Amino acid sequence: MITTKELKNKYLEFFKSKKHAIIESASLIPEHDPTVLFTTAGMHPLVPFLMGQEHPLGKRLADFQKCIRTGDIEHVGDASHLTFFEMLGNWSLGDYFKKEAIEWSYEFLTEWLKFDPEKLSVTVFAGDKDAPKDEESANIWKSLGIPEKRIYYLPKEDNWWGPAGATGPCGPCTEMFIDTGKRRCSPECRPGCSCGKYFEIWNDVFMEYNKVSEKKFEKLKQKNVDTGMGVERTVAMMNGVDNVYEIDAFAPIIDKIKELAKVDNFTHEQLRSVRIIADHMRASTFILGDERGVTPSNLDQGYILRRFIRRSIRHGRLLGIESDLCIPIAKVIIRLYKPDYPELNDKKKLILDELVKEEERFRETLEKGLREFEKIAEKGDISAKDAFLLFQSYGFPFEITRELASEKGLKVDEKGFDKEFKKHQELSRTGAAGRFKGGLSEASEITAKLHTATHLLGEALRVVLKNKDIKQKGSNITPERLRYDFSFDRKLTDEEKKKVEDLVNKKIKQGLEVKKEEMLLDKAIKSGAQAEFGAKYPPKVFVYSIGDFSKEICMGPHVENIKELGHFKIKKEESIAAGVRRIKAVLE
Ligand code: SER
Q1: 276 and 229 in one domain?
Q2: Taking the model in full, what pTM does it have?
Q3: Phi first, then psi: what are they for 62, rounded to 5°?
Q4: If you measure from the C-alpha of residue 329 to the centroid of ligand 1, how many angstroms do you get, rounded to a whole number?
Q5: Residue range(s) defining the domain that contains residue 538
Q6: How far, in Å, is the centroid of ligand 1 from the Cα of 183?
Q7: In a mutational test of the pocket of ligand 1, which residue from 15, 33, 43 has the highest number of ligand atoms less than 8 Å from its CB?
Q8: Beta carbon of 41 within 6 Å of any ligand 1 atom
Q9: Residue owning the nearest CA to atom 2 of ligand 1
Q10: At residue 433, does pLDDT exceed 50?
Q11: Is 433 within a domain?
Q12: Chain-wide mean pLDDT for the chain?
């Protein structure tokens, strides 16, 4: 059997031979993009560089990246859908373009992975009002020997990738498919059809556009390549199976579930549960073990994590596993992945502690909740109010209620539930963000303070360095410190650092109010609000002002009055790339 590790090694080795620098997998939680919860593709952390910022390692990069996509969560349990997966990618940041990208894809697939060129079909962009038909890519494929009849021209829905968030870099793509040899499901069957005849393994995206609003695309200042190859899918294909759960990366996880369930031969339904647990526990272990750690909560990433864990527990119960499901499985996952993701080992204790807590919490209410569900279900379809009661009193995320209902042929009022849920989230947001280590409200208060301090710091830098054009290039907050990256081309002197600290502290003493307004993005920018360089924002944003001192587009959370912040201190100032400085600071 060809293993996941072998594929990853080959890929990186191949692109090293083509002069690519290998970069580390970035965090699962996007740093530059407030519009999405998770890193959904390898390109995501590279958005600022696709937009033109210089990358410290050059113009050719390759990596494997941990990714989470929740869009297909309902399909998890079949042979190929996953929420967590690894993606291989190579990038050209304004360097090579279609010819090299396609030729190298072909060389790697046929010479290094030994796929039969006769089984390869490709798709290219058919063209529309935003971008022309991609004849150039089609011609490159033809020059490599792919006949016209195996080149399919498809519209934007199929052959356009990005942006990763609401706006940003995107472009037409060419996708590569392996013909599994199955019969066509219909005369229209072609790559992209979901019947399983064609298995997609690689996508080369030619990112030369920037989506600036719902309908508007502009040319980027450079032509980029972004490619993505799903590791699990490709390993499955290389081993001649079309079921991702049969590869080496899943076998020990599935074996552990079998052991816990004390079952050898699963029914079709049980097998679905096994796969859901395997997939969701991988996602949960990686979210908990991420360098930008998140713990279960009812908010944002924390809520997705909670849903993964709770759904696993419910499916475990269907297999007869009544206790201690998460820990044994997470241990297998950590052991399997720690060589490539050492953060899982560093955070092992936190991962296991949080899983135990969440499992205990959910099991306390699960049985009662199931009995309550039975009662509710006797009345027929499930109302929004009842679904919300199951969530609030028994901790049933929506999917669990929906699954239970569909097992009885009943429907749930999803829209109504969403409404109730949003109201509830708004309430908890004002209390505490709860997205960091420990998920304690105390930690959330500290992070809100650091968040507000970040705005003060940005403005203080612009004032002290007498440079209005200093832009935020990234920011990261943990309960311990803030980290702020900004555009500036030299080291700060000790005197300047002191002046920045003094200015921030002076403002804190003045006890300025923090004001929040909702505005259209255009209006916010016109009003002079600061925005992060390269960040993508939704059409409507919040603008936070601190007295007359600072004004920024931001998702919050912030304190109401800065007198709460205490004393601000810079701990470190360093360079992280040409023209980009990083400050780490604390509140004492
Ligand atoms: N971003 C593209 C994808 O995910 C290529 O990397 O398919």
Answers
A1: no
A2: 0.74
A3: -145, 155
A4: 29
A5: 440-587
A6: 28
A7: 43
A8: yes
A9: 228
A10: no
A11: no
A12: 90
Residue of 63, 68, 203 to test ligand 1 pocket, by largest number of atoms within 8 Å of CB: 203
Integer Cα distance of 203 and 4 in angstroms = 19
Contact 203 CB / ligand 1 (< 6 Å): yes
Q: pLDDT of 281-326, one tens digit each?
A: 999 999 999 988 789 988 889 999 999 999 999 999 999 999 999 9
Query: In CATH, what number is assigned to the domain containing residue 578?
Result: 3.30.980.10
Q: Let me know whether 331 and 305 are in one domain.
A: yes
Pocket of ligand 1 contains residue 42 by CB under 6 Å = yes
- Please provide the size of the chain in residues: 588
Asked if pLDDT for residue 539 goes beyond 80, the answer is: no
Atom 7, ligand 1: residue with shortest CA distance: 228
Closest ligand 1 atom to residue 89 Cα is 6
Domain count, the chain: 3
Could you say which of 423, 449, 480 is where a domain stops? 423
536 band by pLDDT with thresholds 50, 70 and 90: low
Q: Same domain, yes or no, for 473 and 390?
A: no
Q: What average pLDDT does the segment 209-235 reach?
A: 93
Q: What is the pLDDT of residue 377?
A: 96
430 falls within a domain = no
Residue 124 Cβ inside 6 Å of ligand 1? The answer reads no
Residue nearest to atom 3 of ligand 1 (CA): 228
Residue 369's nearest CA partner among 353, 344, 391 is: 391
Q: Do 533 and 561 fall into the same domain?
A: yes
62 in ligand 1 pocket by Cβ < 6 Å?
Answer: no
Tell me the C-alpha distance between 281 and 86, whole Å.
Answer: 15
The response to whether residue 226 sits with its C-beta less than 6 Å from ligand 1 reads yes
Are 508 and 563 in a shared domain? yes
Q: Flag whether 29 is in a domain.
A: yes
Specify the pLDDT at position 567.
95
Give all strands (DSSP E) within 458-539, no chain letters.
472-477, 482-487, 514-520
The percent of residues in the chain predicted with pLDDT above 70, rounded, is: 94
Does residue 429 sit within a domain?
no
The 8-class DSSP code of residue 339 comes to T
Contacts of 527 (CB under 8 A, 6+ apart): 519, 543, 551
Structure tokens at 68: 């989470």
Please give the backbone phi and psi of residue 332, each rounded to the nearest 5 degrees, phi first.
Answer: -65, -45
- The helices-and-strands tally (H runs, E runs) of the chain is 18, 16
161 lines ligand 1 (CB under 6 A): yes
Q: Which of 212, 229, 244 is the last residue of a domain?
A: 244
